TrEMBL record, chains A, B:
Identification of the protein by name: LacI family transcriptional regulator
Organism of origin: Rhizobium mongolense USDA 1844
Annotated InterPro entries: HTH_LacI, LacI/GalR-like_sensor, Lambda_DNA-bd_dom_sf, Peripla_BP_I
Residue stretches making up the HTH lacI-type domain: 8-62
GO molecular function: DNA-binding transcription factor activity; transcription cis-regulatory region binding
Name of one Pfam family that matches: Peripla_BP_3
Signal peptide span: none
This protein's UniProt keywords: DNA-binding, Transcription, Transcription regulation
Length: 347, 347
DNA sequence: CTGAAAGCGCTTACAG
DNA sequence: CTGAAAGCGCTTACAG
């Protein structure tokens, strides 16, 4: 009655070859206690039969599931594909599977998602927390991907340095007045980016910050950002804190007849999928997600293998900051000379 | 030495309560062979101890892992968040976990990804195949999400009907000449959408199709699409076969000083995350991913539970076509009267 | 170098 | 209504 996998198991291979299951197990796992000749014979036969080891049996015996959990605040987040891909790749390279869990918004769902993963017996998990959530202890090692500003150790891109990259780029292009455009002033990531930009401004440059969420709170969701007026006021560069906002900025400017980058430069963050596709293509700052995932996963594996702190939250080794990288595309260009627009044209 | 989960197990609960493990198991699983009183006591005690059942033990015994696999052609695909979210939700609602696997491009990687999932003991899997791939048998039930044009049974959005929705919308707005913009002429999904659009044209309307891939093959990746000229030629509506292309179309038009939607309408497909964010917001056709995921997952669970065809590929019940839904936003509007541009202004 | 045996935690007939 | 026992497939000391 029990729905058992129809495939062969160790014991079938063993009897069929007239050896013990222990020997088959050893031969297959390559622990080296079996004669080379026998190893060859066993492996060959196993392959012939299409033997697939039972994770369940192994997990029960070893206490390891070989699976990592990935908890996301909201899968709909456009950054998610990159995160998931990078984590999946890092995990698969280490022979681990990845179980996903979406916390769909609120914090209680996040806790539930974590519990679901624990129940499934993950050996560890990577959590991208909801804004400013502190992760309560899960009964397995946990690596958190977030800003340095989040309490506890985390791995993350160096958002501050990323901001400085933007500032330096805009300074190079001769921009003086910069409008920083963010979504949510509560976001640690966004605040780090703002801090980086501001700290990287050269003498003579100034920046203001526009928070879309605040604006929409008053003017309604999807309201115009009033950027044309900002251009008139003398802002020549619009530094969005994410490509999603950059896209909004770019299209609003273009809709209002402002040429990008001739009249205004636009930059973003994250190098999301569409950033290279729009016209003009978006200058942006990219996280090294593969590196971040690699650090998170190897910290997890380390902790799993050494067995330290198997209970209770265990975070990554240090506050790792992975450098970001500037990608210059067509949406940013030299600032127009401020007062004498038409001179210097052919210089 | 074995790294066993430190938490309590059935036997600990049993001895601590002076009953048998069988009784504890029955009480917890609610099979109803235990007196209500005892059930209460056992449950309470289990909760106190923070008992979490071992999936490994259960899986080994029942032959079910409680996990479904999700194989994706490329996680970087912007549609992925919606698919993953919908599948995760449907699976979680049914008490299943979701293991992801990225086939990162080529077909061999897809086979590997499927194998990895089988090795992890998934009870079934959902596959979003690479373009025109036929899924080779995996040793568990498989549901395929793709177009009807793919060989074998699949679940999918009704892309053809989605195309008709676009055609009807553009007809309503008085558009006569439509430029369909696709990425890849090999894509079944895109071809279905084209077919739907063409079949839905009213008398007096005509459509041409522009394949970006072909154009880029000649003119280089990221080349201009030459849409301004198309507007001059009399095309008043640009129907992209995906929001990603729609975004490219929209920004190129705007960059070239063409007002959307006053001078040209733009529509897309899929309602991707940024579609509502751009200015003007994108009119698009949306798949009902939740419905699609629900169908795929329940077909899988059905097959898992009835135990039919546990070996070999098993696909979903019928070729299920889930209707798409038109979302009208600001990027589409009435066609300009063709010849007499300035008349009728106040009609 | 090879094998016999124990046991991971669970569920499920089967007795009582 | 409750319990004793078997067994899912594996790995790992321990003997030989």
């Amino acid at each position: 009655m029990a729905q058992l996998r129809p495939g062969p198991n160790l014991s079938r291979i063993a009897t069929s070859l007239g050896v013990s299951v222990a020997t088959v197990s050893n031969a297959l796992s390559g622990k080296g206690r079996v004669s080379e000749q026998l190893v060859g014979k066993i492996r060959e036969h196993a392959a012939e039969l299409g033997y697939v080891p039972s994770q369940a049996g192994r997990a029960l015996r070893t206490g390891r599931s070989g699976v990592l959990g990935l908890v996301l605040p909201d899968i709909a987040n456009p950054l998610f594909p990159k995160i998931a891909q990078a984590i999946e790749f890092a995990a698969a390279s280490a022979g681990y599977g990845v179980l996903i869990a979406d916390s769909r918004g609120d914090v209680s769902a996040q806790t539930e998602a974590i519990n679901r993963l624990v129940e499934r017996g993950v050996d560890g998990m990577v959590i991208v927390p909801r804004r400013a959530t502190r992760i309560s202890a899960a009964s397995c090692p946990v690596a958190v991907i977030d800003t340095a500003s989040t309490p506890g150790n985390t791995v993350a891109a160096d958002h501050w340095q990323g901001g400085q990259l933007i500032a330096a780029h805009l300074a190079d292009l001769g921009h003086k007045r910069i409008l920083i455009i963010g979504n949510n002033p509560e976001s640690n990531v966004q605040n780090d980016r703002v801090g980086g930009i501001r700290s990287g401004l050269c003498p003579g440059m100034s920046a203001e910050t526009l928070w879309i969420e605040k604006l929409e709170h008053q003017a309604g969701s999807g309201c115009p950002l009033g950027l044309a007026r900002k251009v008139e006021e003398g802002f020549s560069a619009f530094a969005a804190l994410s490509d999603l906002q950059a896209l909004r900025v770019l299209t609003e400017l273009q809709r209002d007849g402002i040429d990008v980058p001739a009249e205004a430069s636009v930059t973003g963050f994250d190098d999301l999928i569409w950033s290279a596709v729009v016209t003009p293509a978006l200058t942006t700052v990219k996280m090294d997600m593969d590196a971040i995932a690699e650090i998170a996963v190897s910290a997890l594996l380390n902790s799993i293998n050494t067995g330290r702190t198997r209970e209770g939250t265990l975070v990554t080794a240090e506050n790792d900051r992975v450098p970001m990288q500037l990608i210059i595309r067509q949406s940013s260009g030299p600032a127009k000379p401020v007062q004498e627009n038409l001179q210097m044209e052919n210089s």
